[in-house]
Design brief:
single chain; mainly alpha; two-stranded antiparallel ribbon; 10 helices; 4 strands
Length: 346
C-alpha cells in the first residue's frame, strides 16, 4: 500500500520548483502551483474601503456625546452615594465615620432656614440632638471607663454653642415685641438641665465636670429669661448691653406707664418725657350761678257747660245734584224679509 510520496520524490519536487525548466515528471503539480501563484485571494477595493472606514476613529461629536453620558452617569452615582450617606448618618454618634456628614447636613439645613425666629428654633433643635447623642452614648457604653470621652466632649461643646446662639436670638426677639419667646426659652432650658442631670452619673469623671459647665449655662439662660419676663411691662427692659447668653436686663426700678398698658412688651414713651413746651395747660372756668326757673303757668278752669258736638263731614258736605234723565233714542229698522215686523231698538 502506497502511503504517499517518499522522501526522494519530495526532494526532486522541490528541485523542480526551483528550476526554470519544467520537469515532465511533475508537470501537473507544477501547473497547479503556477495557477495558485496567479490567483488573487485578497479583499477587493470595496472591501478594503469598508475595512478602513471601520478602522477610522469616531467623529468629535460622537466622542462628546459619549463623554456627556459618562459624566451624567457619574453625577447620578455621586448623588446616590450622597443620599445614602445622609440616610445612614442620621443616627451617627460623635466618633463615628459618618458623624461629620451628619453635622455638615445640619449646617446646610441651617443655611437654608430664613427668619430670626426659625433660625433660633433650629439651634434649639440641634442642641436637643446633642443631648440625645450624650444619652445614646451612655446607653451604648454602660461602663463609664469604656465610654468615649472625646465623643461626649464634642457633643457637649456643640450643645453649648447652639444653646447660646438660640438664647441670644430669642431674647432679642422677645425684647423687640414677642415676650412669649422668653417663656418658651425658659421651659426648654429647664427640660435640658433635667436631662443632663439624669445622665450625668453614668458618664466618665472627665465628662461630668464638662456637664456641670453646660448645666451652669442652662441655669443662666433660665434666670435671664425669668428676669426679662418680669420686666416685660417696665419702661426699660434691658441695659442695651449683652453677653454670651443675650441682652442684659436693666437693674433700675421698674417704671410703668400709667397712661397706657404695654401689651406687646415694647415700652412706650411716658408722659414725663414730653417737653414742657408741648404740654397744654387747662384752667376750668368759674362756676356760673343757675338762673331762677320761672313758675309754671296755671291753666284757667274750664266752665262745666256741655259743648255742642262738632259737625260731621256728612253734615258739612252739600248734597250732590241729581243728574238729569235724558230720553233714550228709539231706533227702528226695516224688516229683513217681507211679511216680518220691523225691528225697534229703544
Amino acid at each position: 500500500m502506497d502511503s504517499g510520496p517518499s522522501r526522494d520524490q519530495a526532494e526532486r519536487f522541490a528541485r523542480a520548483l526551483e528550476a526554470d525548466a519544467v520537469d515532465p515528471e511533475f508537470a501537473a503539480e507544477l501547473a497547479i502551483v503556477a495557477a495558485l501563484e496567479n490567483l488573487d485571494v485578497g479583499p477587493d477595493e470595496q472591501a478594503r474601503e469598508r475595512m478602513l472606514a471601520k478602522a477610522t476613529p469616531p467623529p468629535a461629536g460622537s466622542r462628546r456625546s459619549r463623554f456627556l453620558v459618562a459624566a451624567a452617569a457619574a453625577l447620578v452615582l455621586v448623588f446616590a452615594l450622597a443620599g445614602m450617606s445622609l440616610l445612614l448618618s442620621r443616627d451617627a454618634l460623635p466618633g463615628d465615620t459618618l458623624y461629620g456628614i451628619k453635622r455638615t447636613a445640619e449646617a446646610a439645613s441651617l443655611g437654608l432656614t430664613f427668619g430670626d425666629a426659625s433660625r433660633a428654633l433650629k439651634h434649639l433643635e440641634f442642641a436637643n440632638a446633642r443631648v440625645d447623642e450624650v444619652e445614646t452614648l451612655a446607653q451604648r457604653h454602660t461602663d463609664p471607663a469604656e465610654a468615649p470621652v472625646g465623643g461626649h466632649l464634642t457633643a457637649l461643646t456643640d450643645f453649648d454653642a447652639d444653646a447660646s446662639e438660640a438664647s441670644r436670638q430669642l431674647i432679642a426677639l422677645a425684647t423687640r415685641g414677642d415676650v412669649q419667646q422668653l417663656d418658651s426659652l425658659r421651659t426648654w432650658a429647664t427640660q435640658q438641665n433635667t436631662r443632663l442631670g439624669a445622665v450625668n452619673p453614668r458618664l466618665p469623671e472627665q465628662v461630668q465636670a464638662r456637664v456641670a459647665a453646660s448645666r451652669q449655662l442652662l441655669d443662666r439662660i433660665t434666670d435671664r429669661s425669668a428676669t426679662l419676663l418680669g420686666r416685660a411691662n417696665c419702661y426699660q427692659i434691658t441695659t442695651g448691653n449683652s453677653d454670651d447668653v443675650g441682652a442684659l436686663p436693666a437693674t433700675g426700678a421698674c417704671h410703668r406707664d400709667t397712661a397706657s398698658t404695654i401689651t406687646s412688651g415694647v415700652p412706650t414713651v411716658p408722659p414725663s418725657t414730653v417737653p414742657p413746651r408741648v404740654r397744654a395747660t387747662y384752667t376750668s372756668p368759674p362756676p356760673v350761678a343757675p338762673e331762677p326757673t320761672p313758675p309754671a303757668a296755671t291753666a284757667p278752669a274750664l266752665p262745666l257747660v256741655p259743648q255742642p258736638p262738632l259737625p260731621t263731614p256728612s253734615t258739612q258736605r252739600p248734597p250732590s245734584p241729581t243728574p238729569p234723565q235724558l230720553p233714550v233714542p228709539i231706533l227702528e229698522l226695516p224688516p229683513l224679509l217681507p211679511g216680518l215686523p220691523a225691528i225697534r231698538v229703544g
